[in-house]
Predict the structure.
Amino acid sequence: MSKLSTRHLIGIKDLTVEDIQQIFETTDNFKAVINRPIKKVPSLRDITIANIFFENSTRTRISFELAEKRLSADTINFASSSSSVSKGETLIDTVNNILSMKVDMVVMRHPSPGACKFLAKHINAQIVNAGDGTHEHPTQALLDAYSIREKHGDVRGKKIVIVGDILHSRVALSNIFCLQKLGAKVMVCGPTTLIPKHINELDVLVEHNLRKALEWCDVANMLRIQLERQDIKYFPSLREYSMLYGLDRAMLHSLPKKITIMHPGPINRGVEITSEVADSDQSIILQQVENGVAIRMAVLYLLAAQG
Amino acid sequence: MKLLVTEANIIAPGSPYHAKTCDLLVDNGTITTIITGKRLTAPRGFKTYHAKGKFLSPGWVDMLTHLPDPGFEFKESVHSACAVAAAGGFTAIAVTPETQPPIHSKSEVKYLLKQAHGHAVTILPMGAVSHQLAGKELAEMFDMQQAGAVAFTDGDKPIAHAGVMLRALLYARGIDALILSRPEQKEITGSAMVHESKNTTLLGLKGIPNIAEDVMVARDIELLRYTGGKLHFSKISSASSVELIRRAKKEKLNITCDVSVNNLLFTDASLSDYDTNLKVTPPLRSENDRKALLKGLKDGVIDVIVSDHNPQDTENKSVEFDYSAYGSIGLQTVYAALNTFLGNELSAELLVEKLAINPRIILGLPQVELKENALASFTLFDARQKWTYTKKNNLSKSANSCLLQKEFTGKAVAIYNNNQWIVTN
């Protein structure tokens, strides 16, 4: 088995196309595993993984924990919705304390961009980024791309639009990096105030009209509005946001082709998509969740092989 | 202090000794002899310094040092700041009022001058424009001026309220005081901490666009047009504000400005590692902006280079980028870094103009003259000396510099000021 080119998974930015392909191939195997009656493999026995979450998370944390358990790793969980700083302890101290208990890998979510990179510079354990502020969320991007590959056969040449709050989204940035590496065309769509001014310099198309964006794409990834990350008002109201960027069944059915609908969750039903759209046969939202476990198993397994 | 300096290459634009090799005899704080074409021998009791191959210029003045004494002496005290300044070749440093309590009344000004007494480096206190640096009510500028404040600024805090700025400029004109404006419209900045660009988008960081600076530069130029008097922009960083100031100067408005050494050395591309030592105010901008700042320096739009020395302890820096304090130390390395990285662009003569001549003009200090019977205040520097900046030779109480472990070509080697002679090892 060839190794990944990186010791940590901090961002998609650091991965090569071969790394991504290898993660996908490993995911194929693990997906078969988790659909068997006995879902557990002994691959990471004797490896201890700390899931350290400085920001609220339900699905990502559960998905990682499940992936770790299916690989027979020992896991510990540390969650703090407030930052370490507000408690008077620094991030390095918090993590070093946990590492003193002989932990091999750290899965961390943190509200500050660059926090995982910062940690990787200061501690010895391997780091998996489970989301660092508005920077990257690499496993989400991998599972999104994997889900597109599963549904459409290949990512290359596909047109994918990411809709919503691009400015505050780590999912958008990681998705852009991952999809572009795999040869897809990427567009972002959202209110002018929520699209970073320089995003077009990343070879990304920018569209502010939802209908035009949906008519262009094969896959629409509908992001959640991150109200908790908005320090000031970027649009007048959720109601008006929904009027401009909410996807309902009427619009979905009026499109010239059947597009695939994705959402990283949790969904604000009735804001970015209506329930009918979320639950329609064009939606692969639940497949994304399933693939999330398999992708995280693959990532942890491949990184552990690096040691 | 009795001193003989031999064979120094004089850099003193405007002086008859400029670009000549001279010997100087200094006694008790005064130049007693300066001579070219002949060698002097040291009279009994005089120390001799052989300056062959080194430059000697009027003493350098830093127009922007954040000296957190009183309040945060563990980051830098008056005593340590004077040592850092001397090692950086500065004979005087103008310090900002961001202390605890702020320098916003006569007492704090007097405290600083008292602490600085007896040091080789002269401390030039800058008082607050507004009481408590709150940007609301004017501080007692006249009283502080009488006590020794050389200018007025709210430090890194922009004066957001146009009415307060208008009244500050108007009032300052009446007492012939200088107001410094650090232009940044914070309502545009929001929670952003770095320049807005492709580079910072890739890092997932929200950006501060140039326009946040430009609108306040434009505002203050128009305010000054109305109030009269004089205005100095502190740490401009964008290409467009260089242009705004260029136009204002053409219109003969009494406006000057400075640039931080950080914005000359680094750009937003330097942030790729989230190095908190590069989290500075104003943010490191694009290469295009950096080039415009260099051009502005050369063609005279930008008058002064400042160190923006801002000591922070490790607890404020060895943390996540979001939580890190702003600022970088730099007083000790201004010349070394500029000569190493921009030596081809900025001549020694230009640097002396930006570091010694212009700050004195702008702050209304008497010019230092290199002539007999003049007060001795000079800096010796060597453009060829190689050295490495390390935690050991860093004299600041703080170590927040991304230049540590860098090898430099060029060093400030000694200062003579306040009748004291300090040679840097």
Summary: The first strand of chain B starts at residue 3 and ends at 10. The mean pLDDT of chain B is 97.
